[in-house]
Amino acid sequence: MIGVPMEENYKLEKEFRLPADTFREAYRAFQKKFVYPKSRVYVLLFSALALGILIFGVIAMNDAPKKQKYITYIAFIMAAAFAFREWYTPEKMRRNLTESVKALGEPVYKIGVGDKFVDISTVSEDLSDIPEEERDSTQDTDPLPEKTRLEVNEGFQLMEYDQFFLMLAGKESFYILPKDGFSESELKIVRDIKN
Q1: Which residues of 43-68 are buried (b: 16+ CB within 10 A; e: fewer)?
Q2: Which of 65, 128, 137, 181 has the CA that lies 20 to 30 A from 157?
Q3: Phi and psi torsions of 93, nearest 5°
Q4: How far is CA 94 from each of CA 17, 28, 91, 168, rounded to the nearest angstrom?
Q5: How far apart are the C-alpha atoms of 5 and 125, rounded to whole Å?
Q6: Rounded distance, CA 160 to CA 177, Å?
């Protein structure tokens, strides 16, 4: 028929919800793979720099003028602050993102697995916290995002954990698919995406 979109040819099409606890654990797994290695290098570098400045300050700056001691003290504080920031930022980011996901409630998502692609879309928002009379206007003024298509190519990664899958399109964006609610045959289809 003209004007009617052709239905996608999916091997698997299923709706799911993403609980905030699963998001937190999945984001931690993402950070362990892509954020923590770089962060740890910077923590070690800045910590070593702070320690070097401290040792230099104690040994060499005994008889130095007050101004040089002050500059050494400021350099130590800055290096220590940078080390702390590199350690703390990933933790803070995970906490903030988890709080944002909690604020969304549990919207319904849909996954569609095709031959060389994976589609992820939001089916409906969780409007349980919004009064009945405001729900229609909320849906009209805040439409759902468009479907996201992940091409299964050399940049696509699928990582499996006990409670979820992580699907990565490059190193910047990732999608979480909780295993809860999926049958073993459906999980096998997801596992076989890269094959």
Answers
A1: beebbebbeebbeebeeebeeeeeee
A2: 181
A3: -65, -45
A4: 19, 7, 5, 17
A5: 24
A6: 10
Q: What is the largest CA-CA distance in the chain?
A: 89
CA distances to 6, 48, 58, 70 from 176, rounded to whole Å, are 27, 37, 50, 49
| Buried/exposed code over 167-190 (b: 16+ C-beta within 10 A; e: otherwise) | bbbeeeebbbbbbeebeeebeebb
* Residue the block writes with tokens 């994976």: 118
State pLDDT tens for residues 125-149.
Answer: 655 555 555 545 544 555 667 788 8
One-letter amino acid at 186 equals E
